[in-house]
User: Which sequence fits this backbone?
């Protein structure tokens, strides 16, 4: 039996999901997209998991794109379905009720960058390269790349990356707002897990409130967004974690958040 295209391991309250096709630089075929979807559904449903780290197996790539060999034979209808399959996965990740960090350990190209952009935060190794090179295949991004890159990095950078197709290095990606942090490749693992542990120890319902507000706010006008934020803010006063967090501050101790 061939090895699973997606591996899952738990490190305390941090679930690590690894795309596991290192021989193909973790390229996303339909089976891998489906396995990722299942892995994220499981992480969403498990209360003990408070933060997710997504990465790629091997030293070379996060994910080098959608699987070009698989795409080569698709009909237009199958191509559309493949796009929807990828888009649904990225949307599922974006709407996860707990923070998802992409640990970008190498190439994040095409569907790989789209996958990383579906995550809430991105930490890249200084050796990583990111881009939307589909144009070189006579294609366009199909897993949400034109839309999420536009929202993350703006029109000029999106047009340049998608029209020209040349990847950028991690430092340039940070300058463009595509990745949050760049760290030395040797530190990537430790730095990412440090951040993941910090988030895993934070207040889960408040984290979810932030994620919901930002997701809603990215897609509506300011008045509607502010109204949504107010409603979420009010809701926080029903949580034990809000009482605990404010009491801990006043008592000069560390809070212990329960997720209630
Ligand atoms: N889909 C399918 N297979 C891929 C792939 C992809 N997106 N990216 C890499 N692979 C495969 C290669 O075909 C090769 O397989 P093989 O050993 O069976 O021939 C293996 O992964 C290693 O890749 P290779 O190209 O030999 O590595 P490299 O170090 O010379 O180049 C890249 C690395 C990332 C520059 C190069 O693989 C590349 O350009 N990949 C495609 C990037 C892309 O266009 N992505 C967008 C797709 S929508």
Assistant:
């Amino acid at each position: 039996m061939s090895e699973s295209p997606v591996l899952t391991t738990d490190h305390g309250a941090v679930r690590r999901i690894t795309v596991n096709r290192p021989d193909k630089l973790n390229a996303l075929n339909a089976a891998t997209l489906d396995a990722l979807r299942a892995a994220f559904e499981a992480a969403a449903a498990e209360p003990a998991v408070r933060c997710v780290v997504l990465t790629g197996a091997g030293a070379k790539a996060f994910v080098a794109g959608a699987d070009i060999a698989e795409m080569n034979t698709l009909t237009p209808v199958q191509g559309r379905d493949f796009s929807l399959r990828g888009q649904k996965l990225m949307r599922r990740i974006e709407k996860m009720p707990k923070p998802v960090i992409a640990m970008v350990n190498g190439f994040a190209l095409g569907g790989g960058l789209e996958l990383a952009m579906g995550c809430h935060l991105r930490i890249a190794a200084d050796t990583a390269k990111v881009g939307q090179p589909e144009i070189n295949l006579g294609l366009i991004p199909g897993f949400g790349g034109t839309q999420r890159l536009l929202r993350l990095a703006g029109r000029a950078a999106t047009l340049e990356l998608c029209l020209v197709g040349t990847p950028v290095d991690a430092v340039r990606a940070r300058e463009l707002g595509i990745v949050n942090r760049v760290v030395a490749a040797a530190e990537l693992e430790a730095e990412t897990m440090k951040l993941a542990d910090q988030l895993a120890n934070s207040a889960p319902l408040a984290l979810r409130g932030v994620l919901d507000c930002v997701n809603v706010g990215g897609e509506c006008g300011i008045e509607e967004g502010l109204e949504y934020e107010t409603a979420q803010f009010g809701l926080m006063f029903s949580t034990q974690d809000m009482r605990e967090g404010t009491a801990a501050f006043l008592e000069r101790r560390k809070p212990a958040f329960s997720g209630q």
Observations:
- The first helix runs from residue 30 to 45.
